[in-house]
Design brief:
Layout: H1 2-30, H2 35-39, H3 44-64, H4 69-88, H5 94-106, H6 111-125, H7 132-154, H8 162-179, H9 181-186, H10 194-199, H11 204-208, H12 214-236, H13 242-247, H14 249-268, H15 281-295
Length: 300
């Protein structure tokens, strides 16, 4: 009788997990994120864990984009408590339950989750960054943290690829910031460091009014160069162990997509103020697959 009860409970647990993971898969499927294309060739277990992490990040990020700082803060506090429950094995939300499974399966660290929520909290109250150091901290919180979780799911041991993940996350986020200058301006936000604006004589007002000026063009060129420095830094920080370099194929696929996006941002210049700069779905899929194949080991 006891064995039958355990078997039923086990089936019920697996059915619940599958339902929870389906919620997360749907969040990723409905998104326009390049993550989806980079992860398609991974085994199912890794894909599901990444879907759970992505769904959590998406839920937190969406809160920051909604009106009402007080209610948004309350909802982020609720997600922080859900992370507590996920690590304690008692989550209440479908995404939290899927996240709890991913945490247990891949021994995910706690700190990146807290740091990510801190970064989203920043978005509720901060709409300017004085220096690149200020912006780097924000980029770490909302992007590098995700990378730290991803490399664990890819199978790289703790610490072996953390500096790489941190640098690549900053490169990705600066690329996003440059792509979204016009969209952020509509919301009254300027992520470009104010110190860099002053260096080139670019006013905040010209950005908020979405004026295409030579001064903003110079700032964009400066930040494109900075993003490329982070991409180069990530390359130099890749682990030397061939096994771990192979494990980072999904991250390198992402790098291929985002590097191409940065090239388009550079070509658009101040055009990012009033038109969408992006890479098509087929283009992203092709770049991800090409990079993945190029990184595959060859038999002698």
């Amino acid at each position: 009788m006891l064995s039958e009860t355990v078997a039923v409970a086990s089936r019920t647990g697996l059915e619940q997990l599958e339902s929870d993971l389906a919620v997360c898969r749907d969040v990723l499927k409905r998104s326009q994120s390049s993550f989806r294309f980079a992860f398609l060739l991974l085994p199912r277990t890794e894909r599901d864990a990444l879907s759970a992490v992505y769904a959590f990040c998406r839920a937190a990020d969406d809160i920051a984009d909604e009106a009402g700082a007080t209610s948004s803060q309350d909802r982020l506090d609720a997600w922080r408590r859900e992370v507590d429950r996920a690590f304690n094995g008692q989550p209440a939300h479908a995404i939290g339950r899927a996240l709890s499974w991913a945490i247990a399966t891949f021994a995910l660290p706690r700190q990146p989750f807290d740091d990510l929520i801190d970064g989203v909290v920043t978005d509720l109250t901060v709409d300017r960054y004085e220096t690149i150091e200020d912006l780097e901290l924000y980029c770490y919180q909302v992007a590098s943290t995700v990378g730290l979780l991803c490399v664990r799911i890819f199978g790289v041991p703790l610490g072996q690829a953390d500096p790489y993940a941190i640098a690549l996350g900053k490169a990705f986020q600066i690329t996003n910031i440059l792509r979204d200058i016009g969209e952020d301006a509509e919301r009254g936000r300027i992520y470009l460091p104010l110190a860099d604006l002053r260096v080139h004589g670019c006013s905040e007002e010209s950005i908020l009014e979405r004026r295409r000026t030579p001064e903003l063009e110079a700032v964009i060129r400066m930040e494109v160069a900075r993003a490329r420095e982070f991409y180069a830094l990530a390359e130099s920080l890749k682990p030397r162990d061939p096994r771990f370099r192979q494990a980072l194929k999904p991250a390198e696929a992402m790098r291929a997509v985002y590097s191409a996006l940065l090239d388009r941002v550079e070509a658009a210049g101040t055009g990012v103020l009033d038109r969408e700069v992006r890479i098509s779905k087929p283009g992203r899929a092709w770049r991800a697959a090409r990079t993945w194949w190029a990184a595959a080991p060859r038999e002698n």
